[in-house]
Amino acid sequence: MSEKQAHLNGAYYGPSIPASESYHRPRRGGGGGPLGCCCCIFGLVFKLIFTAVVFMGLAFLVFWLIVRPTRVKFHVTDVKLSQFNFSTDSKPSTITSLSTSPIPRNPNKKIGVYYDRIEATALYEGQRLSTVPLTPFYQGYKNQQTFLNPVFKGQQLIVGSNLLEEFNQQKSAGVYEIEMKIYLRIRFKLGRIKTGKFKPRIECDLNIPLNNGNSVSTFQTEKCSVDYFNY
Predict the structure, then answer these.
(1) Which domains can be identified in the chain, with CATH numbers?
(2) Closest by CA position to 123, among listed 35, 222, 185, 206
(3) Residue 180 and residue 151 in contact, taking contact as beta carbons nearer than 8 Å
(4) Residue 85: enclosing H or E segment and its boundaries?
(5) Residue 45 has what DSSP assignment?
(6) Which keywords annotate this record (predicted)?
(7) Whole-prediction pTM value?
(8) Distance between CA 142 and CA 154 in Å, rounded?
(9) Among residues 81, 88, 95, which one has the least CA distance to residue 157?
(10) Could you give the dihedral angle defined by the CA atoms of residues 45, 47, 51 and 54, in that order, rounded to the nearest 10 degrees?
(11) Nearest by Cα to 151 from 110, 177, 120, 188
(12) CA 157 to each of CA 94, 130, 187, 189: distance values in angstroms, whole numbers, following the listed order
């Protein structure tokens, strides 16, 4: 009995239990691997792009709030047409002395405009009648110029007999629908800073009475459209 008790209370001298091997779970996308480097680079590039976009947006917002840029505006206050003959045969149509008065207005308080190139064209039903170059000039802040007075003269063959009916109707009414387009090359000036060149196109749809002494129609001031992106 005492031997059994001693055996139970004594140390256990059986075979040793092997120590369990530690298990290390493999890391996903280790920092030293190529995949981890690519992720870090892409993350850094994205942050830089996002920061640049936010900065540019804030800068543009501040610029707009301070400067408040507005498009240059054009309108025509007066026209005079002394003669307009339409021909559908081999003889060209004749436009004799069509004078117009396009007035550019710069509504900006802090932006000036350089008109480096000005060219006015008169068209009838989409076909060119005459083109006139105009003198370049600079337009200051909150300013409008009244010295632009292109005069269209000359002969131009207009193709299309289907236009004769439209022309006769306008002739009977004493009012002709003539379009004037003004092609510009301009630069803007803000303080001492000058921008690059822009090429807007001005379109003026004019209902012009024939000024031959018999017409009782009067010309109404026409507002022109300004297109900066379709030149």
Answers:
(1) 75-227 (2.60.40)
(2) 206
(3) no
(4) strand 73-85
(5) H
(6) Membrane, Transmembrane, Transmembrane helix
(7) 0.69
(8) 36
(9) 88
(10) 110
(11) 120
(12) 8, 11, 36, 42
C-alpha span between 207 and 176 (Å, rounded): 6
Please name the residue that has the structure tokens 């387009």. Answer: 181
Residues found in the chain = 231
Per-position b or e across 119-158, b if 16+ CB within 10 A of its CB = ebbbbbeeeebbbbebeeeebeeeeebeebebebbbebeb
For residues 178 and 99, give the distance between their C-alpha atoms in angstroms, rounded to a whole number.
Answer: 12
Rounded Cα–Cα distance for residues 129 and 157 (Å) = 8
Structure tokens at 214: 């018999």
**Grouped pLDDT means (10 residues each) for the chain, 231 residues:** 52 55 52 67 82 81 71 91 73 75 92 95 87 94 89 74 79 89 94 89 91 63 85 48
